[in-house]
Amino acid sequence: MKNVVKLGLALAVFLTAFGVRANDADFSVSVRSGLGKLINFSINNTKAHVSITSKDGDVLFEENIKAKDGKISRTYNLTAFPAGNYYLEAENGTKVARYEIKIDGKSASVSEKAIAEVLKPVLTFNEGIVSLNIKDTNNTPVEVKLYDENNVELYNETFTGANLSKKFDTKKINAEKVTFVMKYNNKMFVETIAAR
Fold first, then answer.
1. Bridge partners (DSSP) listed for residue 118
2. What domains appear along the chain, each with residue ranges and CATH number?
3. What would the pLDDT profile of 12-66 be if each residue is shown by its tens digit?
4. Would you say 54 and 84 are in contact if contact means Cβ atoms under 8 Å apart?
5. Which of 41, 109, 143, 156 pairs as cysteine with 183 (C-beta 3.0–4.6 A)?
6. Could you please report the per-residue DSSP string of 80-118?
7. What is the pLDDT of residues 76-116, one digit of tens each?
8. From residue 25, how far is each of 16, 31, 122, 139, 152 by CA, in Å?
């Protein structure tokens, strides 16, 4: 019995020691050595969007995940994928992270850290004033557009800098809802909120 426990413990240590793990504060993506083309994904959140794309940007798989206990864990079997480079993109309420997956004949590997990470914009509404905050844009241009409920463009401006903080007075807009479209770091974020 002791030998079985020791063997099980040794096997667990072996698989952990030889595993590749990409672990950012919110996301964890890993491949366990000796298990072929299995990718493990974990996130400490109740909702996430996960997609796997080809190097050309074609979406090969995607899913929206919800968990009641605040922890999401999935294993993806990439056995059907031919050798090449792919990307796993994970999105939660605050950021989007992208990991590189390399598949060769019988195994897969994942980048140790996210190769790209974009913080999502934060919109808050208080008494007719909408505050837009975008942090850590890597000094890339941030395009902000505002539309009414009939898709009429009300505002369009491009900003530069590491952080963006802008206020919009929506009390004078003759619309019930407004839609913000924000583009930066090769990502587009769309959010519709009440104008009053």
1. 96
2. 2-118 (2.60.40.3080), 121-194 (2.60.40.3080)
3. 333 333 333 333 446 666 655 456 788 888 888 778 899 999 999 899 999 998 8
4. yes
5. 143
6. TSPSEEEEEEEE-SSEEEEEEEEE-SS-EEE-SS-SEEE
7. 888 889 999 999 998 888 889 899 999 988 888 888 888 88
8. 19, 18, 19, 23, 39
